[in-house]
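Tutorial, part two.
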Amino acid sequence: MSITHDTLVEYLRNQPGLEDAVKELDDVPMQVPAHWEWIGGIHDDGLGATTSVSYRAWTHFALGFYPYNGCDLYRDTRSSRVMLSYVELGGHGARRISYLVTKHSPFIHEPVAAHLQVPPELHDDLFAALRELGMSEQTLRAQAERYKNVSNILEPLPEDRLTGASIRGERGQTQLDLTLMGPRATLRALRQRFHRA
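Running the prediction step on this input gives:
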């Protein structure tokens, strides 16, 4: 059995007898105990590597943002409880963060975040595609300036249009590194067309 971001809510909906509360588990060691069976990961290959931007991280599970966009799911073979879990790295050292989740947990599936690396020869095509999606270069740069020192976005983001989180590089001169937020399908398409690592 393998669970992904696309099938998680349906999987949880079909689990019997799960409590409604979202609860952080304090006692899960780095090595997950054997009675917790790995059932899948939330990583979306179409969006590439995880970004460092988080979205409403203390109140919701935003599956397209750090830290949940790279987390693992486990099922307790003794009770059918489901645990969302990831390893957090930082100045305090590595530690496992884990939550019990249910069909009532506050998941956010859209928007998502994606990082693109775009070579100079594709810049004009990229900005033409962004204009067709309602985002000018000026808007992208203004939004990126707004979020440049923000690691956790707290205000609601639109689900149906793009928002710029960061942009580095000079148009037509150097590779552009940008992080965009928006609909999953739109960001998958942009990465497929323009991203060159």
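The longest strand covers residues 82-88. In part three we will examine how such features are distributed along the chain.
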